[in-house]
Amino acid sequence: MRQSRAILLGTGLFVLLGFAALFFMTTQITNREFGLGDAGYRVTAMFDQVGGLKPGAPVSMSGVTIGRVESIAYDFTEYRARVTLRINGEYDKIPEDSDAGILTAGLLGGQYVGIGPGSAETFLADGAQIEFTQSAIVLENLISKFLFSKAAEKPEATQESAP
Amino acid sequence: MIGAVVRELWQSLRDALEALGSYAFFAGRLLAGTPRALLRFGLVTAQIHNAGALSLVIIMLSGLFVGMVLGLLGYDLLERFGSEESLGMAAALGLVKELGPVVTALLFAGRAGTALASELGLMRATDQLAAMEMMAVDPVRRVVIPRFLGGIISMPLLAAIFSLIGLFGAQLVGVQLTGVDAGQFWSQMRGAVEIDDVMEGVIKSGVFGVACSLVAVYEGYHSAPTAEGVGRATTRTVVISSVLVLLLDYMLTAIML
Questions:
Q1: Which residues are registered as beta bridge partners of A44?
Q2: I need a labelling partner for A16 at 20 to 30 A (CA). Which of A135, A148, B83, B116 fits?
Q3: A20-24, B9-13, B56-60, B66-70: lowest mean pLDDT where?
Q4: How far apart are CA B152 and CA A17, in angstroms?
Q5: What distance in Å separates the CA atoms of residue B239 and residue B236, rounded to the nearest whole number?
Q6: Pairing mode, if any, of strands A80-87 and A41-47?
Q7: Of A7, A19, A25, which to mutate for an interface test with B (greatest number of B Cβ within 10 Å)?
Q8: Distance separating alpha carbons of residues A157 and A151, to the nearest angstrom
Q9: Digit-coded pLDDT (tens) for B130-154
Q10: Which of B137, B128, B135, B107 minimizes the C-alpha distance to B221?
Q11: pLDDT tens digit string along B39-68?
Q12: In what order do the strands lie in the sheet with A132-134?
């Protein structure tokens, strides 16, 4: 059966588009860069607990997004989590003694890295490490701490209220 | 009185069973002829063009708007809990696992299924199928099976395109319009969507493709050779396909959950 080339072209395009969509869904939904490309510089920070932080999460100072979390890995020399941050090149005046913390946006929101500026005269450069870190808060630890402290102060409280 | 009702019920039950048997017999005939039809792939390619490539515009347009609605509604709902960052995850899972395959199948039944049924019905009404039989050409093998296969191949591809366009629609509304962070949108999605979820969508759309194509070619091939018969075949195609797709969707979701 002879077919016009337009039909073959259309069919080929459709099949190509379909498989491209499938390919994109199977690969890109699980791996994507966020337009920062190779621009900017990398900074690492060690955390005892990263909680639900994921690669691609924003890095912010005072709520302004200045970069992204590039990768999260476990460091077996320090036995802590190593988080690599990629900071946008235009934000190159972050004091060296700044601190990084893993914070949560809203009650159920995603987690991000917040950087609080220090007061040093020298600035973080490519490959530098942020020394002062604050880990993510794990809700279970918080609740158990709260319960234990409540249990500890209870007898005292009843004694005071008795007389 | 009661006897007449029972007889009526028995009759309709027998009719339904007869139709089901006829469907099964026809499906067996299609399957038996499939290997040889695959050898003449040119016929199938033409049908992939008819069923798939020509449905592309309506699928892409619907996908875009379904995704945009999902982005808007999802944002409105999630914002109440202060977790609008989860929008990407919600939109992706909803589209890839459920909305993509189902809405594509419904649109496919409306766009390609009706075209198949009325084409075959008109061939029947104008004695083209009988003419082929006269020339010792098996119309099932020459006309019906390529259409059946074209539909089956097209459906998963259309569903994938629908889901992807929908995802960009949701991203358009969620990130560009309402201001969910782009990184959070994609990273939450990445964290939640697994390869199994994508595969579930592909399997679902494959099954829907078989169901919709089978209904369309069966109804068209077995239509009464009149103008009214062709019209009825087209209507039945849409009704049966739609109900069947939703029914199968529930069963497949329950199995793969």
A1: A84, A129
A2: B116
A3: A20-24
A4: 16
A5: 5
A6: antiparallel
A7: A25
A8: 10
A9: 898 899 888 888 889 999 999 999 9
A10: B128
A11: 888 888 888 888 888 899 999 999 999 999
A12: A128-130, A41-47, A80-87, A64-75, A58-61, A111-116, A99-104, A132-134
B46 touches chain A (CB under 8 A): yes
Question: Can you read off the two tokens belonging to residue B149?
Answer: 């296969």
* Residue B48 CB partners (closer than 8 Å, separation 6+): A11, A14, A15, B150, B153, B154
Helices (H), chain B: 2-39, 41-51, 56-79, 87-93, 100-108, 114-125, 128-134, 139, 145-171, 182-192, 195-221, 227-256
Q: Alpha-carbon distance A4 to B9, whole Å?
A: 53
Nearest CA to B117 out of B25, B215, B47, B228 is that of B215
Give the integer Cα–Cα distance in Å for B174 and B62.
18
CB < 8 Å to B198, chain A: 22, 25-26, 29
CB atoms within 10 A of CB A38: 6
Q: How far is B246 from chain A (nearest CA, A)?
A: 23
A149 touches chain B (CB under 8 A): no
Q: Is the dihedral of CA B123, B128, B130, B136 positive or negative?
A: negative
From residue A107, how far is each of A58, A113, B71, B191 by CA, in Å?
Answer: 17, 16, 21, 19
Structure tokens at A116: 């609080």
The continuous run of DSSP H or E covering A60 comes out as strand A58-61
Q: Are B198 and B100 in contact (CB under 8 A)?
A: no
Q: How confident is the model at residue A15 (pLDDT cuts 50, 70, 90)?
A: confident
A31: pLDDT strictly greater than 50: no
Sign of CA dihedral A24, A28, A34, A38: negative
Measured CA to CA in angstroms, residue A109 lies from A106, B67, B84, B87 at distances of 5, 22, 7, 10
The residues, any chain, with a CB within 8 Å of residue B32's CB and separated by 6 or more, are none
* 3 state DSSP class of A131: coil
Q: CA-based Rg of chain A, rounded to a whole angstrom?
A: 25
Q: Could you write out the DSSP letters of every residue in B68-132?
A: HHHHHHHHHHHHTTT-GGGHHHHHHHIIIIIIHHHHHHHHHIIIIIHHHHHHHHHHHHTTHHHHH
In the A/B pair of chains, how many CB contacts fall below 8 A?
123
Would you say B183 and A58 are in contact if contact means Cβ atoms under 8 Å apart?
yes
